[in-house]
Each structure stands twice: as structure tokens, then as C-alpha cells.
Amino acid sequence: MMVQAQDNKELVSVNPSAVTTVAKTDHNPTKALLLSIIPGGGQIYNGQAWKIPIFYAGLGTVGYFAYNYYSDMMMFRKEYLRVGQNGTSELPGYEGLSGYYLYNYYQSSNKNFQLFTIITVAVYGLNLLDAYVFGHLYDFNVSDDLTMHISPSVAPDFSSRMGFAPSVNLSFTF
Q: Which of 84, 96, 119, 150 has its CA 20 to 30 A from that of 159?
């Protein structure tokens, strides 16, 4: 079968038996997002199960620090209130401290707890974002035919006396 181009100058031969059809999968990015409510569910749906240990390690690490700072915060709060009644601290490792220092330790632990809580939410949000974005890119064709080439070149520059300037040429080949 011969197909004539619109400019009437070029003829292209097309072999109907050589034409292949690419079946588009029914991959749904919203489903990947909803499955990712349980961390790693969306990554399994997207076929990227290798990311699951990374997310759980991140959530576990920041969750550990958030819990640690929360328990320190509650310990210093309790001791600060007790010092307000008795006058001195009897907390192991903090004996004899006044309420001023205990209050500062409480504030520091509270600030760190809040920070790590925000980081925990951010890591969880990255889990959701990763599942949704890679759900959209599931059918994206990444082949060896995609290349990028960077080379030096000379470009016209009318603002200089020489009339040209060194530049960088960036070309993409699909």
C-alpha cells in the first residue's frame, strides 16, 4: 500500500502486516494513590515494590524520633509541675535543677516533637505523591532511543563587539 504525503513530493510505503498496535493498560493513578494510604500499597500497584523498605525506614526513623521527643516532653512537663510543688528536681540525671531549666528542656523537646511530627507527615505525603506520579508515568516509554547530546557552539550575539558569543548546544533525540 502506498501513501502519498500532503506536499505531493514524497511517497511512503507502508506494509500493513508490519504495523503493530500497542495495547494501553488500564492503570489508574487514582487507584495507586488510594492504595498508598497504607504505605507501599501504591508502589506495589505501580510495580515498584523496591521502594517500600525506603518509605518504611523513613517513617520508622522519624516516627521513632517523634515518639522519643514526645516522651521526653511529657517527662519534663511532669517534673516541672512537680518542682513547682516541691522546689527541686529529683529526676535521675537532672537532680537539683530549677523549674527554669526544666521548662527550657520541656520547650526544646516540644519543638523537636513538633518538627519530627511535621517530617513524619512529609514522608507520608511523599509516599502518596510518589504513588500518584508514578501511576501517571506507568505507561511512559523509556527506551534506548532517547538521547541527549551537549556540545559547545557559537551563537550570534548582537550586543557584543565581536558579533558572536560562546554557548552550549543542547539537543534531544527521540
A: 150
Distance set, CA 152 to CA 88, 102, 127, 157, 162 (Å): 73, 63, 40, 15, 18
**pLDDT higher at 88 or 100:** 100
Label residues 38-73 b or e (16+ Cβ within 10 Å = b): ebbbbbbbbebeebeeebeebbeebbebbeebbebb
Give the pLDDT confidence of 46-84 residue by residue, as tens digits: 999 999 999 999 999 999 999 999 999 999 998 888 888
Q: Is the pTM of the predicted complex or chain greater than 0.90?
A: no
CA-to-CA distance for 136 and 138, rounded, in angstroms? 6
Residue with C-alpha cell 516532653? Answer: 73
- What single letter denotes the amino acid at residue 86? N
